[in-house]
Amino acid sequence: MQKSLFLKALLIAAVFLALQIPLIMINGIVAERSARQRAVVHELAEGSYGTPILAGPLLSVPFVEEYTETITDNRGTKLEKRRAEGVARFFPASNAIDSEATVETKSRGLFKARVFSWHATARGEFVFDGKPEFRRTRADSRIVWGKPVVSVLLDDPRGLQGPPTLDWSGQAMTLERGSALPHLAGGLHASLPEFDPGKPQRFGYALGIALRGTESLSIVPLAADDRLGLHSDWPHPSFGGQFLPSPETYQRRRDGFDAQWAVTALASKTQQQLLAILDGAQECRSEGLCADRVEVRFIEPIDIYSLSDRALKYGFLFVGFTFGCLVLFEILKGLSIHPAQYLLVGLSLATFFLLLIGLSEHIVFWAAYLIASVACIALLAHYLSAVLHGVRGGLSFSAMLTALYGALYGLLVSEDNALLLGSLLVFVAIAAAMMLTRKVNWYGLRTPKPM
Predict the structure, then answer these.
(1) pLDDT at position 97, please?
(2) Is the peptide bond before 57 cis (omega within 30 degrees of 0)?
(3) Of the candidates 331, 361, 340, which has an alpha carbon nearest to the alpha carbon of residue 448?
(4) 150-195, pLDDT tens digit by residue?
(5) How far apart are CA 398 and CA 377, in angstroms?
(6) SS3 track for 115-152
(7) How far apart are CA 316 and CA 346, in angstroms?
(8) What's the half-sphere exposure (Cβ side, CA atoms, 13 Å) at 54?
(9) How far apart are CA 227 and CA 98, in angstroms?
């Protein structure tokens, strides 16, 4: 008899392992649908406007350095005039951005992407103390300053909504396409009235810009003191980059959020990073501007594909717990359940995940989860009422499945506590099995006769 019990245990184990194949196939469907979702976002970004990265303004002033050099050769000593050209870069002393983002959802078939309109006004000033920092060949050389240019870096200008405006010390300036900077072509620039950076003075500016983008917005803080304020109607932001909003200023509402950032040059490496790129000392291999940034992503509160993928990771526990309960019914009630019936029960459990994915693409995730779980529990309750020879057994099993589906939903919606909840679930299941079988004489078990 022990041999036949061992053989049945092997058959049940083989059925359990075979059921991992449909679970793996369903997981492949989730991966394929998730990849298609990302592709749709990429297609929308490529076909219209991408994920904008904005930096600036940055002031560039070309200069010519003139000096006299003493040359000594076999004919004697003579003086020669030298000229060296260069460009001095200046960053704002302060920059305050007040902005608003309006988010909408675009659909392509079943797949969706968030697009936004961002309207901003940046106000700040450039301060010159009379001692500009730039490379000089000789300390006593004469500097002749050229025509200054102010640049605004924008990696994807396609998202511009209307012409940006620039007010420079009360004078309206015309912005032209192109950053006028080496190695970083994307953006805008404007020629400014000539002035001498070697004299103490300051210039205020106001930059108005409107952008459309997909999914995320990034700002590179270049000023000595940067302040960024963002008001949005999207209630589900995700903050990335190297700088997070000030906790005391962040407010999340049902209809959006407000956030503010404060970044100083002492806490940021962006000025050094940008100068290294402009000088050719650092190569930017990735898309966009390779510098530290403030990043805001407008995300869906529930990613159905990531949740489905997480649910499938617990699929083997679902099947294992269910098979364990069936084995307990066999032992405690003296029933005989055929391996083919184990297989059908397992396939119905696998079908739950397929239903969940299909339904969640059309309705909200919690409703899809409820419908899929109720359908599978009802099916198994009806089927097991016959397998377990009584409605009571089918209802008992459906109560166990209801608790199991409820526990899984708790694992999905509580990502931070998923490990703890999963550990408790396994512990409770093992403890229940131990308590129910603590008086079972395993050596005295006999194979139940089919009924």
Answers:
(1) 93
(2) yes
(3) 331
(4) 999 988 788 888 889 999 988 999 888 888 888 887 889 999 998 8
(5) 6
(6) EEEEEEEEEEEEEECCCCCCCCCCCCCEEEECCCEEEE
(7) 10
(8) 27
(9) 8
- CB count in 10 Å sphere of residue 199: 10
> CA 194, 199, 202: angle at the middle one, nearest 5?
75
Per-residue pLDDT at 223 exceeds 80: yes
Whose structure tokens read 């983002």?
Answer: 101
Q: Concatenate the DSSP letters of all residues of 90-111 into one string.
A: E--SEEEEEEEEEEEEEEETTE
pTM: 0.69
290/285 Cα distance (integer angstroms): 8
| Dihedral over Cα of 382, 385, 390, 392: its sign | negative
Q: How would residue 451 be classed by pLDDT, with cut points 50, 70 and 90?
A: very low
Residue 381 has pLDDT above 50, yes or no: yes
Q: How far apart are CA 33 and CA 357, in angstroms?
A: 9
Q: Are 87 and 147 in contact (CB under 8 A)?
A: no
In the sheet where 171-173 sits, what is the strand order? 171-173, 165-168, 201-214, 111-128, 94-108, 225-232, 256-264, 251-253
Asked if residues 149 and 189 have their Cβ atoms less than 8 Å apart, the reply is: yes
